[in-house]
Amino acid sequence: MFKRILIANRGEIAVRVIRACRELGIESVAVYSTVDANSLHVSEADTAICIGPGPAEQSYLNIPSIIAAAEVAGADAIHPGYGFLAENARFSDICSTCGITFIGPPPEVIDRLGDKVAARTIMEDAGVPVIPGTRGAVTKERQALTFAAQAGYPVIVKAAGGGGGRGMRICYTDKELTQGFQTAQVEAGTYFKNPAVYVEKYILNPRHIEFQILADQHGNVVHVGDRDCSIQRRHQKLVEEAPSTFITDKTRAAMGKIAVRATEAAAYVGAGTIEFLVDEAGKYYFIEANTRVQVEHSVTEAVAGLDIIKEQIRIAEGETLSVAQRDISLFGYAMEFRINAEDPANDFRPTGGTVEFFNPPGGPGVRVDTHIYSGYRVPSLYDSLLAKLIVWGRDRTETIARGKRALRETLIEGMATTIPFHLWLLDQDDFVAGRATTNFVEQNYKGV
After folding, report:
1. From 10, 16, 120, 292, active-site residue
2. How far apart are CA 331 and CA 221, in angstroms?
3. Is residue 292 annotated as a catalytic residue, yes or no?
4. pTM (predicted TM-score)
């Protein structure tokens, strides 16, 4: 077993990993930038080391500083959390070279699945259904236009190395495709240092449904059920729930088997996610694999009774999975609300400042993952996530009622947050009835 794990991250995920380490009897090492000196993960860890100034490039993305901190602290392993270096194959490889275990998949797997074109090819060859699209990256507009003529509009241009909505353009005409192709290439090169793009048929009014997977080093793979992540704005998730109300039990079982097949085809090891789009007819298509723990892993934990971070650590230690597929069953319903420092009345504009007062909710079926407290100053340099509110109920009706109650109890004074948006959402008939698609927010939300 590892004796000491360095968490190469900040915020709520760093606190989450520290808690898992403590329960496993493993010492935790926090790293922090100068502007994060008063963050909760710094005081919660057994050891904390400053790795540089506020800008992420000089701290949380500074590989030499992180490796040096791990060596000074005598860390056996590094947990990357999500974001920052979590899907950086070079970082994974450097950890290995330095004799430090990277808690995640091998670098070659991160490389294969991080390239969306390569991932599509792996899945096609394994018989996993993918959205109709170009077989590989396209470099010329005429190639994109030829595909659109064959598939029909709308189509979507995507960055091969992309994610988070960057380098994506939905196009309905030849003119839009010509412009969108060029813009996507520029964005892809800027954000991902890889200008390659590909083109897919755009699925109208889809559901975004993903499967949590766990795979150990001994060839054992399981899925831990599905999550519906359809409530998004600009391709950024806002609310997740488990299980989805849209797919049938028969479809859920079939998608779970496909998710396991996709994981095996990629020779994946660790905790990860296989993501699908499901069209209005219930037909599902692979869109990408995430080679890390997701922000929304906690909503799966609520219905599965499984600690995914602990499983992730045990896998990295070389242990076999603690559960087989037959042991996994989901009970009840859960929802996760991302409480961000954003103003939903002004197009979700980022806010910030000092948390003048924070009162988290409580009661049955309520969990809060956060790094904030009264008096905490929110840095403007990083992600806007303040807290995740996870609520569980015996059925979806109870979960929605519990969500309303818990959101109203949550007090964060000193800045605008997304709490008013979540309360609005839970009053919408289409959402309550389970009819919301990925376009729901753009089509219905006008600010509150």
Report:
1. 292
2. 21
3. yes
4. 0.93
